[in-house]
Specification:
By secondary structure, the chain is an all-alpha fold. It contains three helices and no strands. The chain has a domain of 49 residues. The protein is elongated, with a radius of gyration of 26 Å. It starts with a helix and ends with a helix.
């Protein structure tokens, strides 16, 4: 049952990533014993849930930074196009005169 649950969770998150075009982080522990679960929750192997959460936050911050950077580049390009377009119109008027 454990394998079927993790396979379905994986499939569902993959479909969501494709459908919405967003990255999806996924941290699922499949433990056979309580001892394994406790080890992965911070006793021996580090806190895997915390690590997965931290990765998700870092990816979200990176994505936000990319959007800001992309928006700034588009704004600069738009301003440059407007400036260049205005210069072209002025030179056309001069050549007609």
């Amino acid at each position: 049952m454990r394998v079927a649950a993790s396979a379905e969770a994986t499939r569902g998150l993959g479909e969501a990533a494709i459908r919405f075009g967003i990255p999806v982080g996924f941290g699922l522990l499949t433990c056979d014993t309580l001892e394994q679960a406790l080890d992965r929750a911070g006793l021996k192997s580090g806190n895997k849930g915390f690590e997965a959460s931290l990765s998700a936050v870092e990816m979200a911050n990176l994505r936000a930074t990319e959007k800001v950077t992309k928006g700034a580049k588009e704004e600069r390009n738009s301003r440059a196009s407007a400036k260049t377009g205005g210069q072209r119109q002025a030179s056309k008027k001069k050549s007609r005169s």
